[in-house]
Automatic annotation (TrEMBL):
PANTHER family linked: ATP-DEPENDENT RNA HELICASE, ATP-DEPENDENT RNA HELICASE DHX33
One GO BP annotation of this record: mRNA processing
Enzyme class: hydrolase
Domain Helicase C-terminal: 244-418
Protein name: RNA helicase
EC number from the UniProt entry: 3.6.4.13
Region described as Disordered: 1-22
GO molecular function, one term: RNA helicase activity
Signal peptide: none
Organism from which the protein derives: Linum tenue
Keyword line: ATP-binding, Helicase, Hydrolase, mRNA processing, mRNA splicing, Nucleotide-binding, Spliceosome
Amino acid sequence: MPSMAQNGRVTTDFKQSNQAHNSNAFARREEIRQQRESLPIASVKERLIEEVKKHDVLIIVGETGSGKTTQIPQFLFSAGFCREGKSVGITQPRRVAAVTVAKRVAEECGVELGQKVGYSIRFDDRTSGVTRIKYMTDGLLLREALLDPYLSRYSVVIVDEAHERTVHTDVLLGLLKNVQKARLKSQDRKFPPLKLIIMSASLDARVFSEYFGGARAVHIQGRQHPVDILYTLYPEKDYVDAALVTIFQIHLEERHGDILVFLTGQEEIEAVERLVQERLRQLPESNRKLVTVPIFSSLPSEQQMRVFMPAPDGHRKVVLATNIAETSVTIPGIKFVIDPGFVKARSYDPAKGMESLIIIPTSKAQALQRSGRAGREGPGKCFRLYPESEFEKLEDSTKPEIKRCNLANVILQLKALGVDDIFGFDFIEKPSRAAIVKSLEHLFLLGALTDDCKLSDPVGHQMARLPLDPIYSKALILASQFNCLEEMLITVAMLSVDSVFYAPREKLDESRTAAKCFASPDGDHITLINVYRAAEDLLEKRKWVPHTERNEKIFKAKSEKIFKRWCKENFINGRSVRHARDIHSQIRGHVEQMGLRITSCGDDMLQFRRCLAASFFINAALKQPEGNYRAFGTGQVVQIHPSSVLFQSKVECVVFNEMVQTTNKYIRNVTRIEYMWLTELAPHYYTMQS
Ligand code: CDP
Ligand code: MG
């Protein structure tokens, strides 16, 4: 059985005898059985099954941790909903939740993952023909509908975490409503009625119930212990530092119990991880019994399960999480919550057609969910790192994502599903007309739509097939024409993961010097390619040795070791690079299937930069006399982000992929281009502008 070593890494104890293993396995099964029986949902199993049988749409509201996600699909399975090869599908807004819950449920059922219980998320499918309980992201089910418009393999679809109101959840609800109607109308026995369950942790089921014509809602009583809420006296200037101080205050002064800290993203989590390690080294040996465990969406799946494992004996665990731990995953053992009160969110300005990621205060509902995590198993404490007066100023609940994101992706998918009239689509909450118009315009500029707003052939259809942001899908299609698809595949993979470089505050100079070895004077895209290729070289260097199984193992271990050292020396995030390699191989598979020509432009980076200009022309910016840049499309004044290789350079014209807004508006992932290329390669846009 896996156990945690002193340094917090997961190790496997191979020395266990078989007998010990058997009794361990027995004890584990017994433990799981008891845990399941003590969940609040266990006592209402029969009633729930009856409700599902009676109603085609059912809304289930229950506190986080009551057992909705892990238990209800198993109840339905045992009640016969998976007869005749049908499955129960459960959607999650987040990848990590789909993966960790599927693993847990497979363990509860005593089956291997990918057999009866599996998961499927973008770029990672662990299901098979015999899978009957399938966890997946909401986005993935939307894509499945492209191939199977009746979702015929499912007898029940459960939309979980509906209160999160991600754009995919909202669109999926509309789609499922249509599928349900279509199945009812169909006389074909292949399509029995579809049962729909909407699960939510928020008490307000009204909006869902109304949307489904007054659908029935049931509430599951949770178990919640009292949680002391503590506020700071004054606003904190640096919430990362405040969180750090609070972690150690709890560690040194409070009774036992694990800590959960809510941070905004991978970069911040990894920075805090390093800072905790560093401060620990300054403490006396006896006070060092603290282990950190990160959890965020792009964490490789083999590392995700670590949050569920207990800390080694006598140690305290600090879970550093994004808002994923608010309701999506329930982590046992938490007694203390640290809530800086911020979250990273998408924000879209339809007037400018620009989407950006911003860090904003949480809503009251989120703050309550976060503090609730401290009281699952007993009384707890929540440290809100802001003054009490600030709480009152928070919004009551989070605005649905569909109201604050670029809709191009969703519209492309709806069009591919045959929904041509986007304005007439029955959204649970309609996005603004301006946002729809702007996103249609965006798709039109990318060549995905014809003049009468239909999907264009072949570009629009090809774009809809790729599981990527439309602008990236288009970049791949163009790259095959520019003979640089190999380079673009790497670029898109690297742009799809979180920061590849890290720059710890205390080693800023060192990390910047290290990053220079990969830097291209042309910009970040080519720099990312350089990093990717260098990593690939290290990980696949064993070509010259004879291919035997033993050799493979030795060299794999050796190259892994070299890779780790190389990452450390060069301040490169190994996790991100591995993730990018994964994504790369998946997208490569897609474009091969589509019959695109994969060739490399070799050293001709001019060709590649021209392709970047042709692909990302919507995001181009020109240097202004005072040194800032002005984005063409939106007219916004922006600066090149300090993490870019072009920071403080004097280049005239650039294309970029991302805009982040902190105190200033920054553009990231930037490449130098010639202004003239824009009028040549995107005349439909640039003649219109001038
Ligand atoms: O969906 P809901 O929040 O109602 O609860 P759940 O996710 O079904 O979790 C039920 C219980 O399973 C919780 O007590 C979790 O701690 C536990 N669980 C776990 O131990 N390991 C997982 N990977 C997932 C859940
Ligand atoms: Mg759940």
